[in-house]
Amino acid sequence: MKLADLAALAGVSTATVSRALAGHSSVNAQTRERIRSLAREHDVRPNQLARNLRLKSTGAIGLVLPLGHARTQHLTDPFFLTLLGFLADLLVERGYDILLSRVIPDADDWLERVVDSGRIDGLLLVGQSDQFAVIERVAQRYAPLVVWGAHRPGQHHLTIGSDNVAGGRLAAEHLIAQGCQRLLFVGDPAPPEFADRLAGFAAAARDAGLPHDVLTTPMMPEAVHAAMAAHLAGGTVPDAIFAASDVAAMSVLRALAEAGIDIPGTTAVVGYDDVTLAAHTSPSLTTVRQDLAIGAELMVDRLLKRIAGEPAQSAIVPPVLIARQSG
User: Fold this and answer.
1) How big is the CA angle at 227 (ends 222 and 228), to the nearest 5 degrees?
2) Which of 251, 196, 172, 240 is nearest to 218 (CA)?
3) Which CDD domains does this chain map to (predicted)?
């Protein structure tokens, strides 16, 4: 059935039917509902593409995971899955379609190509990777862009994320309170979020008059496991390890167990994120929680404000230490 046929049934013009289906206020509520009821009965749907063109809207939001520093990382990472799930649920509830992609930056204009594609009304970036400068440049001209990541003084792009410096400090202070003195950070300190976690960890160690070491490794599970196993084989056994993420911490737990090292008796381990699996490792993982449900709500709220042309600012989610069996 065409709109003209529906108009004949409703006893109104085709233009009135079109406006009613689009929710236009020029059609009174009673007439709108009568036309929509007839449309449902006869399975008539407005042309969404045409409507979007009229409104200069695509009805879609981009969800992008940029992987400049960890090109083999996947969307199946528990942290990404959790945050993406929260974001997707919130966007669908608000009537948006989602364009999800994992981007390995292959040129300096990769982000321009995303925002200028004409396929999205706004963009959520999950992580800054090593692309801080690129994101900063694009955000100067493209307002509906919200990033999960670290905040730097004076930056232009809008970020939502946990206070990573405070989170790293929480981890170190907790380990030091257990009597630990040989502190080790495990992870990749290049991305801003991980760099901040290390900075907070190092600051707390210095405040306590304790040294700390850094085991730099890519964040993929097998890479962390191999680096940790090699470190232990060298004869150096720390009594406290802070891993830059829970997934990295799980690989640390595996390497320690394989080396016959008691956890937490000989070596205590703390992760970061509090993914669902953290409570189910053996031993269960002590970690720093960043509340991803709240973070996702803030990201979507700020993005929709930017899309509507309203002001919106960055926000920080306070971290919380979750003490379990590993340390």
Assistant:
1) 100
2) 251
3) HTH_LacI
- Per CATH, the homologous superfamily of domain 164-289 is Response regulator (3.40.50.2300)
What tens digit of pLDDT does each residue of 272-308 get? 999 999 999 999 999 999 999 999 999 999 999 999 9
Tokens matching residue 88: 């997707």
CA-to-CA distance for 299 and 123, rounded, in angstroms? 10
Instruction: Name residues whose C-beta falls within 8 Å of residue 321's C-beta, 6 or more positions apart in sequence.
Output: 170, 171, 174, 270, 286, 287, 288, 289
3-55 against 60-163+292-317: fold identical: no
Tally Cβ neighbours within 10 Å of residue 219: 23
- Of residues 71 and 84, the one with the higher pLDDT is 84
* pLDDT attached to residue 305: 95
Token pair, residue 254, equals: 């595996």
Yes or no: domain 60-163+292-317 corresponds to CATH 3.40.50.2300 = yes
Domain boundaries, the chain: 3-55, 60-163+292-317, 164-289
| CA angle centred on 206, ends 228 and 196, rounded to 5° | 65
Cα separation, 279 vs 286, in Å, equals 8
Distance CA 166, CA 288 (A): 10
Three-state DSSP state, 99: strand
Give the global pTM. Answer: 0.78
Q: Which two tokens stand for residue 297?
A: 């709500």
Mind listing the pLDDT tens digit for each residue in 151-170? 988 999 999 999 999 999 99
In CATH, what class is 3-55?
A: mainly alpha
